[in-house]
């Protein structure tokens, strides 16, 4: 599985490289790889010219919860396998791992990760 993640990251990196460099870009998803602790993350967040909005945000909300819940209780290890990566001139005001549980049930086995972003002219 790890090899597939790395190959997919390489493919995405090549596709991004083919796009005009001055076009803002967002790459979002469930990557099933812990941010900062996986080669696939390094390929996308370090080698492709993208930055992780989680780290560029002025404010991070619920930064210590894991983004994967598996429908179980929240774990507080700060492991995000869901990312919002970006390229271009922008201000990231905040990011959040959303922990809303309507009716005390998770709507998904992953927490939504959101970012409040303002693109620069």
CATH topology: Deoxyribonuclease I, Chain A
Largest sheet: 3 strands, antiparallel
Assigned CATH architecture: 4-Layer Sandwich
Q: So how many helices?
A: 3
Which regions are unreliable across 5 or more consecutive residues at pLDDT < 50? Answer: none
- C-alpha geometry: globular
What's the helix-strand series? HEHEHEEEE
Kindly state the number of beta strands.
6
Radius of gyration: 15 Å
Q: Walk across the major sheet and give the strand order.
A: 1-4-2
How many domains make up the 3D coordinates?
Answer: 1
- Provide the CATH top-level class: Alpha Beta
Estimate percent helicity.
Answer: 10-25%
Average pLDDT rating = 96
What's the N-to-C terminus distance? Answer: 40 Å
Q: Helix/strand/pairing class, anyone? A: alpha+beta
**% residues in beta strands:** 25-35%
By CATH, the superfamily comes out as Endonuclease/exonuclease/phosphatase
What does it look like?
The protein has 121 residues and is of the alpha+beta class. 22% of the residues lie in helices and 26% in strands. The longest helix is centred in the first third of the chain and has 16 residues, at 2-17. It is globular.
Summarize, please.
The protein contains three helices and six strands, in the order H-E-H-E-H-E-E-E-E.
